[in-house]
Amino acid sequence: MDEAKTAEERQGPVRSDAAPRRPEGGRDGGRRRRASRRSDPGEGGGTIVPPQSVAGRALVSVVAIMCFLACLAVGALSVVRDAARDWQVDVSREATIQVKPIGGTGLEMRLARALALARDTAGVRSARLIDERESDALLEPWLGKGLDLGSLPVPRLVVLELEDPATADLGGLRSKLAQEVEGAALDDHAVWAARLRTMAGAAVLVGAVVVALMLAATALSVVFATRAAMAGNRDVIEVLHFVGAEDAFIAREFRRHFLALALGGGLIGGGAALALFVVADLWFSNGRGDPLADQARALFGGVSIGWGGFFGVIGVVAIVTALTGVTSRATVLGHLRRLE
Amino acid sequence: MIEFENVGLRYGTGPEVLRDLTFAIEPRSFQFLTGPSGAGKTSLIRLLFMSLKPTRGLIRVFGRDTSQVGRADLPGLRRRIGVVFQDFRLLDHLTTYENVALPLRVSGRAEASYRADVVDLLEWVGLGERMHAMPPVLSGGEKQRAAIARALITRPEILLADEPTGNVDPPLARRLLRLFVELNRLGTSVLIATHDLALMDQFDARRIVLADGRIEIYE
Question: Do both A212 and A328 map to the same domain?
Fold first, then answer.
């Protein structure tokens, strides 16, 4: 069929004979163009999937809640990971020499020798002897006040501050102590550091699992919402098929619809989480004297999520939105394949 | 253009609602499809439009056996067929303009390339001033004309219209019939399903009469 010719042919008779209310202008192109301008249709890109639906609003709420929780998990993860790293650095930057009393004499001399060896060790910034008063104070919470600790074989401590835990010659110090100071033992806090690493790793793993579960729940919600939307828009899909729409077009329209919903929900949830972090950070920062704030500050050093957590929140919103797009498209295509 | 050979159709395990249908719709032909209510006119149109598959027999659309047509090829074939539904099937959340432009939009064309054509066609069918209106506020006749415009906008090779005058008054029905006749004169094959004898009497055309699931053709 010659389309151009057909169009030209059709214009005349249809307009002259059959139009129920033929607009003025006849065949005159200029007048017709003016008529077209008078009735400018505007943008013709209205969303093919009806924008408002109960399922759509429910999905926005679900995505917002899931995003909020996932962002909280990411933020909490960021705070715990930073705190664990700080603890680990603090613990690793210190070492302790423990000197046990042997036979009731010579302890002070052995302590002085241990202190001297520590100060001569490469990588040790400073070494300090914990005197008797400090030792008593350390034991007081466990043994109580008023005890004569002088009668007990209480070990004495030398605390070392290291410049760099990686380069400090603790191995050399340990062997010298073994050779020259009887009853001395070096504790480089490796056990504590390993436990902190394990704890931080476990926290990261738990957080990652929580986030993964949230994303899985969000994906399932999207599947159900998409199916509900497909069922609710059966007529729309049928009409689209009748006018020659390909499955990819229909899937694209539904994906666009759900991407907009997910982005809205994600921004609400992510924004709420960020706002909560900012409020919590301000409260912890300004809440000096408040026992809870003081305890949290002692544990975590603050609840600021930092840039890592901030980008983590943005990442969660982006992942949720992308996941929604992929899930809705796959669901729509699967649904369409089953239709016919 | 479309050929039926011993076509039968049943829904589920029920009786055959269409039996032994053998006929063809030729290029540039005009025919009425008639019969009592419930005779299967809409089912036959759905077969013609490939939205139903026959339970037996052979249907060829534009030379292709529909049983061999894959999902990917269906849209291309359907774009060559215009359909006017008895219940209009307009999308209520789109304007009249957007409804009429829908077949062009789904084919991937940019709006700027078809805007003038859609506006012109809307003016031709008398809906130039109603292009911003949503279908729920259109009258039955306006909906019918919008549905017809949507079916015509792609310049289909064949037009299938299911009771296109069922919701309009006699004068408008006559004008719509003239529209179909002119369309046919310009080369489009037309099949109008109707049980309106007065409408059929206004134009001498082939009649396909459907009764008890079988057809009789009066040339």
Answer: yes
**Claim to verify: residue A287 and residue A143 sit in the same structural domain:** no
CB contact under 8 A, A6 and B107: no
Asked if A259 and A332 touch (Cβ cutoff 8 Å), the reply is no
Give B201 to chain A, closest Cα distance, Å. Answer: 18
Examine the fold and report which residue of A153, A182, A211 is the final residue of a domain before the chain moves on.
Answer: A182
User: What residues of chain B lie within 8 A of the CB of A233, using their CB?
Assistant: none
* Closest residue on chain A to B73 (Cα): A246
Give A41→chain B minimum CA distance, Å.
Answer: 7
Q: Where are the beta strands (DSSP E) in chain B?
A: 2-10, 16-25, 30-34, 56-61, 64-65, 81-84, 158-162, 189-193, 206-211, 214-218
- Residue B97: the pLDDT is 95
- Identify the DSSP state of A48: S
Residues of B in contact with A338 (CB under 8 A): none
| Domain final residue pick, A157, A182, A207 | A182
Q: What is the CATH number of the domain that holds A120?
A: 3.30.70
Q: Give CA–CA dist A85/A89, Å, rounded.
A: 6
With respect to residue A150, please indicate whether it lies within any of the assigned structural domains. yes
Which residue segment(s) compose the domain that A220 sits in?
54-89+199-339
pLDDT in tens, A132-171: 788 878 777 777 777 676 677 788 889 988 887 778 888 8
- Secondary structure class of A128 (helix, strand, coil): strand
pLDDT for A38-52, tens place per residue? 455 555 567 888 876
pLDDT at A25 over 80: no
- Give the closest-approach CA distance of A4 to chain B in angstroms: 10
Task: Give kind and range of the element (H or E) at residue A187.
Answer: strand A184-187
Judge if A230 and A334 occupy the same domain.
Answer: yes
- The pLDDT tens digits of the residues spanning A52-74 come to 666 677 888 888 998 898 888 88
Measured between beta carbons, the chain B residues lying within 8 angstroms of A45 are: 105, 111
> How many contiguous H segments (helices) and E segments (strands) does chain B have?
7, 10
B120 touches chain A (CB under 8 A): yes
Same domain, A204 and A329: yes
Pair (A71, A203) in one structural domain:
yes
ipTM: 0.86
B79 touches chain A (CB under 8 A): yes
From chain B, the residues in CB contact with A32 under 8 A are 120, 123
Residues of A in contact with B108 (CB under 8 A): 249
- Interface probe, candidates A239, A252, A253, chain B, greatest B C-beta count within 10 A: A239
Question: B91 CB near a chain A CB, below 8 Å?
Answer: yes
Total count of domains within chain A: 2
